[in-house]
Write a structure and sequence with these properties.
Helix 9 runs antiparallel to helix 10. The chain has a single domain, classed as tRNA-splicing ligase RtcB. The radius of gyration is 21 Å and the shape is globular. The strands form 4 sheets. Strands 7, 8, 9, 11, 15, 16, 18 and 19 form an 8-stranded mixed beta sheet that branches. It has helices at 35-39, 43-50, 109-112, 116-126, 141-150, 152-157, 185-191, 216-222, 238-258, 276-311, 315-318, 391-396, 411-417, 423-429, 439-444, 453-463; strands at 7-10, 13-16, 26-29, 60-67, 74-81, 86-87, 99-108, 204-213, 228-235, 271-272, 321-327, 329-338, 341-350, 352-354, 373-376, 384-388, 400-402, 433-436, 467-479. The longest helix is centred in the middle third of the chain and has 36 residues, at 276-311. It has 480 residues and is of the alpha+beta class.
Length: 480
């Protein structure tokens, strides 16, 4: 395969020129030193491949956490025209609406560190985790269909959290274009027992403290202070979303042939957005998005209970409140300015996060002056970040930013690297208490399996598509 020609055009911004069958150029956001890792796999070729899809607008993009994925690169962003463009499961991924939720508390490091083991144990007891984990919720078929239509609102209506939570979730935790009639019985069967479960792999619930503040005003607006305890929840649509993706990849392979769409890679199988097949996948995907919104809402309710029980304090004393929640595997209808014209587009973000800037009407009113919180978790041994969206992100990336550190070692490589090591002990030596459903997950998720998220965040800030607000340091984590 020919080496991809890529040229630095600005600080932390690189361009792949439009050549061959590319309809638009490629754009990669990364620092100079990150390009060696990025060039090491086939993710740049995937940026080129995405640029060949019908109806793509402006550019095919990749965030600094880019790495090879199914069809689209992980860290990939692309927007498509509604009339001439496509929708592709490969541009969303298998874990539909995998996302991140950040909650703040009234507690500080000194209150929690001495009891972190008890809190982590309580979290582990309250939140089912691990491969194939099943929750305590027993959903009727009517309940499950209601989850698919209402998302986080279903959870709130059934006693899991407060109405106020919904204001601080992307799309208020409910996508309107969901249709349970598009969902297979196999997907319903897989989803029914898993609502309110964490899953495995890179999913986690993490206790952090605010270690460093970079922007006093934005931190104050987000309700974050030095040494304050916060909680990150990272999970998605579980086996339900995976099955929805699997079901529709088969249908999209047929649709690509039906509509004569030339694919540089079969994993980019797609259908015109306005076709029956495109609309059917869109409706099914929105069901999975809503499932994931409900899943994180239920888990967050149990996080609140776990803190109260472990510390023997009242809910008011704990003060666990939602800062924000974001999706990072999603395709959404959004309004953006393209070549000076405001238009509705279908934005694919795969391993990428929405980053709307100051003044945008979809940013909660309380945050609108500084921009939307952008949540960037790292690995379980180092740090995570909260950023704010920027006007440049609106102009450059359809209001998108990175979603995390990005893997640099495969799971097999991580297992080889961890051979003979006591990962729990290593984390404990760093002051991080961890519990996991399996030893295998801890080994696969060793910190060095990921890029240093500070490099990723600095590249985002350097490119101007996100503004650093605070740095978070982990002290406790549960993994699947």
């Amino acid at each position: 395969m020919n080496e991809i020609k890529i040229t630095k055009i600005e600080n932390c911004i690189w361009e792949i020129p439009k050549t061959g069958k590319m309809r638009v150029p490629g754009r990669v956001y990364a620092s100079d030193q990150m390009m060696d890792d990025i060039r090491a796999d086939q993710s740049l070729q995937q940026v080129v491949n995405v640029a060949q899809l019908p109806g793509i607008l402006l550019r095919s993009m990749a965030m600094p956490d880019i790495h090879w994925g199914y069809g689209f690169p992980i860290g990939g962003v692309a927007a498509f025209d509604l009339k001439t463009g496509i929708i592709s499961p490969g541009g969303v991924g298998y874990d539909i609406n995998c996302g991140v939720r950040l909650m703040r508390t009234n507690l500080f490091r000194k209150d929690v560190e001495p009891k972190v083991k008890e809190i982590v144990a309580s979290l582990f007891q309250h939140i089912p985790s691990g491969v194939g984990s099943k929750g305590v919720l027993k959903l009727s078929s009517q309940d499950e269909r209601s989850v698919l239509c209402k998302g986080a609102r279903w959870a709130v209506e059934n006693g899991y959290g407060d109405e106020a939570d919904l204001e601080y979730i992307e799309e208020n935790g409910q996508m309107p274009h969901a249709d349970p009639a598009t969902i297979s019985q196999e997907a319903l069967k897989r989803g029914s027992p898993q609502l309110g479960t964490l899953g495995s792999g890179n999913h986690f619930v993490e206790i952090d403290f605010v270690e460093e503040i970079y922007d006093d005003k934005a931190a104050r607006v987000f309700g974050l202070a030095k040494d304050q305890i916060v909680i990150i929840v990272h999970t998605g649509s579980r086996g339900f979303g995976h099955q929805v993706c699997d079901d529709y990849i088969r249908k999209m392979l047929q649709a690509s042939q039906k509509y004569g769409i030339e694919l540089p890679d079969k994993q980019l199988c797609c259908a015109p957005f306005d076709s029956p097949e495109g609309q059917e996948y869109f409706a099914a995907m929105n069901c999975a998005i809503n499932y994931a919104f409900a899943n994180r809402q239920v888990i967050s309710h149990w996080v609140r209970e776990a803190f109260v029980n472990a510390l023997n304090i009242s809910p008011k004393e704990a003060g666990v409140e939602l800062v924000y929640e974001l999706a990072h595997n999603i395709a959404k209808l959004e309004t953006h300015t393209v070549n000076g014209k405001e238009m509705q587009v279908i934005v694919h973000r795969k391993g990428a996060t929405r980053a709307f800037g100051p003044g945008h009407p979809q940013v909660p009113a309380a945050y609108r002056e500084v921009g939307q919180p952008v949540l960037i978790p790292g690995d379980m041994g180092r740090y995570s970040y909260v950023l704010a969206g920027t006007k440049k992100a609106m102009q450059e990336t359809f209001g998108s930013s990175c979603h995390g550190a990005g893997r640099r070692l495969s799971r097999r490589q991580a297992i080889k690297s961890a051979k003979g090591r006591a990962i729990h002990r290593e984390l404990a030596d760093r002051g991080i208490y961890a519990m996991a459903a399996s030893r295998a997950t801890m080994i696969e998720e060793i910190p060095e399996a990921y890029k240093d998220v500070s490099d990723v965040v600095e590249a985002v800030a350097g490119a101007g598509i996100g503004k650093m607000v605070v740095k978070l340091h982990p002290i406790g984590v549960i993994k699947g």
